[in-house]
Amino acid sequence: MIGNTYAGAAIIGLSAILDKAQPGRTHFNGFLWLGAGSDAFALTVTEAIAARRDRAPHTRDYIARRTVIDYATYAATAVKLR
Q: Using CA atoms, how far apart are residues 26 and 24, in angstroms rounded to an integer?
């Protein structure tokens, strides 16, 4: 849905998990970065998630408002930023 976000993938994945996580559940997550190592962690969600979950848009909301561009547009933009 969003392509390769590189280092952002770990945070986007965690955000998507917390959008739906239920109190008392433990979520195990692992991330592998080629050439940079890997990480793994376990989260146990508390009751506090209910009071905090809707303070910001959910991950799916951010994805829904994205602007899709083709590679030529991306490449032209990347050149201008250098």
A: 7
pLDDT tens digits, one per residue of 23-68: 998 887 666 666 666 777 788 999 999 899 889 999 999 999 988 8
- How is residue 32 annotated by DSSP? E
Encoding tokens for residue 56?
């910001």
Cα distance between residue 42 and residue 69, in whole Å: 35
Tell me the backbone φ, ψ of residue 39, rounded to 5 degrees. -140, 150
Long-range contacts of 48-53 (CB under 8 A, 24+ apart): 49/18, 49/21, 49/22, 49/23, 50/23, 53/18, 53/19
- pTM for the model: 0.67
Say how many Å lie between the first and final Cα of the chain, rounded.
27
